[in-house]
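Help wanted!
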Amino acid sequence: DSGVTQTPKHLITATGQRVTLRCSPRSGDLSVYWYQQSLDQGLQFLIQYYNGEERAKGNILERFSAQQFPDLHSELNLSSLELGDSALYFCASSVRYGGEQFFGPGTRLTVL
Amino acid sequence: EDQVTQSPEALRLQEGESSSLNCSYTVSGLRGLFWYRQDPGKGPEFLFTLYSAGEEKEKERLKATLTKKESFLHITAPKPEDSATYLCAVQAGYTGANSKLTFGKGITLSVRP
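Answered by r_m:
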């Protein structure tokens, strides 16, 4: 158990809908990263927050957004969902910017 | 752009048959190379961090090594419970987008009893 929690574990929804994925980092970790894992692309970086502020963006679609709250938990919002958004979404946390990142169990999103 | 290539894509071993997994990387300035283990449908589990060429880390049957261009994960006398996908990732810096991990596609290891 990495200490990172994610909810829900599974999410099934329809095209065009909006969903919210939640992540709680390890106790004491200030940095949260979101990654998408699909079969053909592997693990891809989406976005990073540090102590409530956005610090870096990867290849994140405009339909996707995220935020980190004062209690350091983070939410990833996915809207206008398409079939291709079906994937595993992971969050990871670290104490600071660099160094090891510890991953949560992931949320499996299925868009029908 | 940072790149990580892992080979082979899949590896099947007999229990006790030692082997090595390869991770080749191209990064502007390596701050860390990471190995993770991932079981199907689970999150990646951290194994090792290597920071500089020549560094080695060991944990049970696993040993990770690093050169300026590649890293190896050596598996000695593997057991069926070592079956998993092994992911390699690089980190180019400590700030902003450089602190993200760039992953390879992984090596799926199967160990037969």
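OP: Thanks! One thing I noticed: The longest strand of chain A covers residues 42-50.
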